[in-house]
Design a protein that fits this description.
The structure is a single chain. The chain is about 45% helix and about 20% strand. The relative contact order is 0.09. Helix 3 packs across helix 4 and helix 4 runs antiparallel to helix 5. The protein starts with a strand and ends with a strand. With about 575 residues, the chain is an alpha+beta fold. Strand 7, helix 13 and strand 8 form a beta-alpha-beta unit. GO terms for molecular function: glycerone kinase activity.
């Protein structure tokens, strides 16, 4: 392999266990590992976010670890192509400390800082990895003022001990040390629910621990040249195992869980004149909040993280201690205990009145800007938001109404991510917002999931729908020639008709849809054109169908001018 080299072979007749030659990872190999880690964390961001229930259930661990690793890689990529291993690992450490986000990002930065210290002589072999994990364990213990078992701290310790034992027992090659560390980390991760009640109640493993396992697995894959995972959680980690005793119990986050009502997450990068100033700040703010972590780049520089209801005092103390940069404040979610619903509906809608409409009908709403649908790549953010919303409900069964606002690839990611915590996610074929309303009207939570989802899907499919859009330019269409500004009525990809006036376009389109029967018409009209709609004119245009039931909703944020549904 191009990024591995070997030292002198071991002498003959070496007693068992056989001493395997110590492979080394080149500068290109280190960069390759960092790049692979970024890709893996990014691809599995939604999974990790969904596991995030400690210290606060803010569903951002995957995002924070990805951002931190990206910051590290970006710093390393600034170096010359011929940069040494020592310079690359140092750049990874500097970038991660300065770009750290959240608890998990701070911990990740200390792991990279440990690698830089261990690789200062320019060699990354089995003993370097063993030394890195040992240093990382010490740095993380120092960074976290109140460590809790069942978290990434536990997983890191297990990996460090396994690596040390591997070297002591004669299995000191790079491959062997990393294999031992990965196995131990996976095992420790699977056991985290037995150590932390909030994980046990949620039926998940620790999110930060999962991120660390992915980091180690990426190193393992870089060494062996194996392809990365396909995005699914490794079965060996058992990260989706739901604890039987906690399957239907609510989560209550209290003071002991390090997340309190009204807390702010405060993060900043601090440069002090001397090390004593940094130590004094740590002592001063320790009593001002929870989850205090300090990721040091050196004795006088580092990133500070704390959850506090006294953020002003924390910031004042920081400015007294030294130079403050990269100051970030984030409101942490309020902790509360609720009854766990058996089944919930999650609907994707634009921002505004339609979101309110779906909420009033009992759905959990995730909003999306329709402009995102024109982007070529699927959105990790919308996937994370939906998975986090499903996870937060604590329901065993989730029915998702995409409403035409999710791509096929995004739906695949959502379905796969749901496996991380064993929720049954049923995706209904609601290709429009108006079809979603039809499905929602037939929701019956008293029925079995299959019966309920079948009735809702049938209602959505039975509704005949069309959309009105404004022609952006003159063109020759299958319905004839149109001018810029004309109204085009679409049904799927087919253009039904062309009209110049809103009421005429609506009545003629509805007549086409009513030819197949129907007694209910639903119109979702963009707010800026609602004033142009006249019900009397519209009904006169329907002729013999003028007595149909009519429901009109003003809608904001839609891509279409009007959505029409007939049932």
């Amino acid at each position: 392999m191009s990024d591995l080299s070997s030292t002198t072979p071991a002498p003959a007749n070496t007693p068992a266990p056989v001493q395997v030659p110590a492979e080394t990872l080149s500068a290109a190999g280190v960069l390759g590992w960092a790049s692979r880690a970024v890709a893996e964390l990014s691809a599995r961001r939604a999974e990790i976010n969904a596991l995030n229930v400690f210290p606060v259930p803010d569903a951002d661990t995957g995002s924070n670890m990805t951002h931190t690793m990206e910051a590290a890689l970006n710093e390393a990529r600034k170096l010359d192509p011929d940069a040494t291993v020592a310079r690359i690992t140092e750049a990874l450490a500097v970038g991660s400390v300065r770009g750290a986000r959240g608890n998990s990002g701070v911990v990740l930065s200390q792991v990279l800082r440990a690698i830089a210290q261990a690789a200062a002589d320019g060699v990354v072999d089995g003993r370097t990895i063993q030394k890195s994990l040992s240093i990382a364990r010490s740095l993380v213990d120092r960074a976290i003022t109140d460590p809790v078992e069942g978290t990434v701290v536990t997983v890191l310790r297990a990996a460090a001990i396994a690596a040390e034992q591997a070297v002591e027992e004669g299995y000191g090659s790079l491959t062997e040390v990393v294999n031992h560390a990965v196995w131990a980390a996976r095992t420790a991760l699977a056991r985290t629910p037995s150590q932390l009640e909030v994980l046990r109640e949620a039926g998940v493993v620790d999110a930060g621990g999962q991120g660390l396992v992915i980091l180690l697995e990426s190193l393992q894959q870089q060494i062996t040249g194996a392809p990365g995972p396909d995005g699914g959680l490794d079965a060996g980690t058992q990260t989706g195992t739901r604890s039987p005793e906690g399957a239907s119990r609510p989560i209550t986050i209290d003071h002991d869980s390090h997340g309190r009502v009204g807390d702010l997450e405060v993060m900043f990068y601090l440069t002090c004149a001397q090390a004593e100033d940094f130590d004094a700040l740590q002592q001063e703010i320790a009593g001002l909040g929870d989850s205090l972590l300090i990721a040091r780049e050196s004795d006088t520089r580092g990133t500070v993280h704390i959850h506090s209801r006294r953020a002003g005092e924390v910031i004042e103390a920081a400015f007294r201690a030294g130079e403050v940069t990269h100051l970030r404040l984030e409101i942490l979610p309020e902790a509360h205990s609720t009854e766990v619903p058996r089944r919930v509906l999650i609907a994707v809608t634009p921002h505004g009145s339609l979101a309110d409409l779906y909420r009033s009908a009992g759905a959990t709403v995730v909003t999306r800007d329709t402009a995102e649908l024109t982007e070529a790549e699927p959105s990790n953010e919308i996937v994370s938001e939906i998975v986090a919303a499903a996870r937060a409900t604590r329901a065993d069964e989730v029915i998702l109404l995409p409403n035409g606002l999710l791509t096929k690839r995004e739906l695949v990611s959502i379905e796969r991510s749901s496996h991380a915590f064993e929720q049954a996610v049923t995706i209904l074929p609601t290709s429009t917002l108006v079809a979603g309303i039809a499905a929602l009207s037939l929701h019956d939570p008293s029925q079995p999931l299959g019966v309920d989802s079948y009735a809702m899907a049938e209602a959505a499919s039975a509704m005949r729908t069309a959309e009105l859009r404004v022609a952006g330019s003159a063109a020759l269409t299958q319905a004839g020639a149109c001018s810029k500004g004309d109204l085009l009525a679409f049904s799927g990809q087919e253009i039904l008709l062309i009209a110049e006036e809103l009421n005429d376009a609506l009545s003629r389109t509805c007549l086409r849809l009513l030819d197949g029967g129907g007694e209910q018409v639903t119109l979702l009209i963009a707010r800026d054109r609602e004033k142009d709609f006249d019900e009397d004119t519209f009904r006169r245009g329907l002729g013999t169908h003028s007595r149909v039931d009519l429901t009109v909703y003003p809608a904001s944020g839609m891509e279409n001018l009007v959505e029409i549904g007939v049932e």
